[in-house]
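Quick one: co-fold with tetrahydrodeoxyuridine.
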Amino acid sequence: MQALRDAARAAAAQAYCPYSQFHVGAAVLAEGKIYAGCNVENASYGLTICAERNAIFSAVAAGARRIQALALACVDAAADAPAASRMPCGACRQVIAEFAAADMPVYVDGVGDLTVADLLPNAFRL
Ligand code: THU
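Sure, here it is.
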């Protein structure tokens, strides 16, 4: 879905990343609406939150409980950088799995179309 990819790229422009200078944007589709998020860093590095979690939590805060698709854009990854530099971190993979079906599409800019199960097989669930 092109609109979701565009929203992820646009959200990266809002990233607060004075420490890494690595702008990340994410967007999720939930109940027909697009919710975007960017990474927000902190001087206490561990408090940083990723773009994917900000986008998902924004959707959940608006009342959504399931997401239908996610797009991620690590716009500062160099063109010749390995795919790993564009992929969701482990924490975000677990959060994505909380709100998404295993076959939900995850579009990773510069990598391609994946699913939740590709990113996190055998996800922990309660
Ligand atoms: N980052 C994300 O926003 N999402 C990810 O899945 C990986 C990493 C951010 C966190 C930090 O602000 C910067 O990228 C460098 O790690």
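If it helps, The domain at 2-119 is CATH 3.40.140.10 (Cytidine Deaminase; domain 2).
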